Amino acid sequence: MLATIRHQHPFFPVFNDYFGESLFNDSDWTSTPAVNVAEDKEGFRIEVAAPGLNKEDFRINIEKQVLEISSEKESKKESDSKNETYYRKEFVYASFKRTFSLPEYADTDNITASYKDGVLYVNVPKKDEAKEKPARVISIA
Question: What gap in Å lies between CA 23 and CA 120, rounded to an integer?
Answer without folding.
Answer: 28
